[in-house]
Amino acid sequence: MISSNAVGTAVEEVEELAAEALRWLLAQAREVGEGGLGWPVRPSDPECDPMFYNGTAGIVPALLEAWRTGGDDTYADAAVRAARGLAVMAEETEDSSLYFGLTGMALALRAVRDELGDEAAGAAADRAMARVRSRFDGTRWGELFELMGGNAGIGLGALALGDTEFAVRAVEPYLGAAERTAAGVQWPYRPGIAGRMHHISHGTLGVVPALAVIGTAADRADLVELALAGAADVVARDEAGPEGFLVPHSDPPHRAELTARHNYGWCHGPSGDAQVFRLLRDALDDSAWSALADRCWHTVTRSGLPERTSPGFWDNNGRCCGTAGVLALACDRIAEQGDSPDFAGVLVADLAGRAIRGADGARWSNVEHRAVPSGLEPETGWAMGNAGIVRELLRFVRLSRGGAPDYAAGWPDQPPVRRGVPQATEPIRPAGAALVS
Questions:
Q1: CB contact set of 423 (below 8 Å; sequence gap of 6+)
Q2: At 421, which helix (H) or strand (E)?
Q3: 187 close to 176: Cβ distance less than 8 angstroms
Q4: What pLDDT score was predicted for residue 1?
Q5: Residue 339: CB partners within 8 Å, gap ≥ 6?
Q6: pLDDT digits (tens, 9 = 90+) for 118-146
């Protein structure tokens, strides 16, 4: 249990902030179909968006988290109505991916069925995945070829939904598309782009866990070996060893005029890299991967975040690129390893301090330092908005009170908490580079 003194902000205050943020979130909902709900990315947007990344599907886990944490049926009812809205919007959704399309919507729908017993939501999830299967051309679903928008995420989603055979089909194209490097392999995240990204959202470390988890489930050694080769490539790019772990955004740099060379959040930095190493630890039953996760955390906690130390540094509160995503990892470490809660407390206090609070509830505005005015319109969803932040705050509250550390609705690129993780005694030496011809 985490004491209030350790977190810097009383747990009761964090819970109240989450409740205010949920009130604002519910106020942005719109009617979709008969009795359904949907959310726009921003309140000013004319249409509701169905996707997980920053639309309705990503709001469902926050509603389920709120219902499990406090037992208020208001949130359960909203989740069921969101599932009805998703079922309607899924009929016209052309994207099939985990974060931007039908696979993520199917997982959100299945979560409503599993948590609340809504069989209509389960049937809608099955229909959505049937469309995903029908759209596969044997190689890919579209331009994107990574976790968020491509094969890796669809494969992980299919496995989470119980379809191992289709999960294997989704990731097998990586065998033929792997590009050999000095240390392992990498993949292009889309055609025609020179830069190769390295991290979980669009890069090699997003493909690696899909290959490892699916390969292990299907007893496919070739997929597991390719995962190790991908991990070896990224580990070889580390610039902060032996204590830390920091890999550039991309090589050659992709959109260098807009993108920092090094990032620290979930999407392109060590906060997300650590989640990949935790996934490899569990999929391969090898605690040595914990050493790399620990090195990631060493770098994150010494990076200066969440202080905005220079223009453009740490301008985001959200789950994808900002503070909430780091809080997710902090809570994983508290639950698994008994880490001090002090840094988690710093993150929570920062989120509390940056919240915009009013009569209509609480929300967060991210910053684009190159624009005037620099404050962006608050968003509703998982990636940059209230849903992603609320979900992490509520988990933190429950963990602080000695409750279950896992989410009401998990996500396949973040492993469940594994208590009592053995500590690695030697640094990991990923193998596999020589296995790719």
A1: 287, 290, 337
A2: none
A3: no
A4: 52
A5: 330, 333
A6: 999 999 999 999 999 999 999 999 999 99
Structure tokens at 18: 């989450």
Dist CA 82 CA 62 (whole Å):
11
Q: Give the sign of the dihedral formed by CA 96, CA 99, CA 102, CA 104.
A: positive
DSSP string, 279-343: HHHHHTT-TTHHHHHHHHHHHHHTS-TTS--STTTT---STTTSHHHHHHHHHHHHHHH---SHH
Establish whether the linkage from the previous residue to 242 is cis, with ω within 30° of 0: yes
Helices 119-135 and 102-116 meet at what angle, rounded to 10? 160
Q: Two tokens at 419? A: 């208590």
- CA dist 345 → 1, 7, 104, 352, 398 (Å): 13, 4, 30, 10, 14
- DSSP annotation of 422: P
Torsional sign, CA 338, 343, 346, 352: negative
Concatenating the DSSP letter of every residue in 110-178 gives HHHHHHH--HHHHHHHHHHHHHHHHH--SS-SSS--STTTSHHHHHHHHHHTT-HHHHHHHHTHHHHH-
Residue spans of the chain under pLDDT 50: 3-6, 425-437
pLDDT at 423: 60
Cβ atoms 103, 159 nearer than 8 A: no
- The pLDDT assigned to 161 comes to 98
CA 158 to CA 177: how far, in whole Å? Answer: 21
3-state SS class at 32? strand
Closest to 264 (Cα-Cα) out of 310, 235, 216, 306? 306
Beta carbons of 220 and 226 less than 8 angstroms apart? no
* Residue among 212, 242, 246 nearest 229 (CA): 212
Contact between 414 and 89 under an 8 Å Cβ cutoff? The reply is no
Q: What is the pLDDT of residues 226-264, one digit of tens each?
A: 999 999 999 999 999 999 999 999 999 999 988 999 999
Q: What is the pTM of this model?
A: 0.94
Tell me which residue of 223, 229, 239, 148 sits closest to 186, measured CA to CA: 229
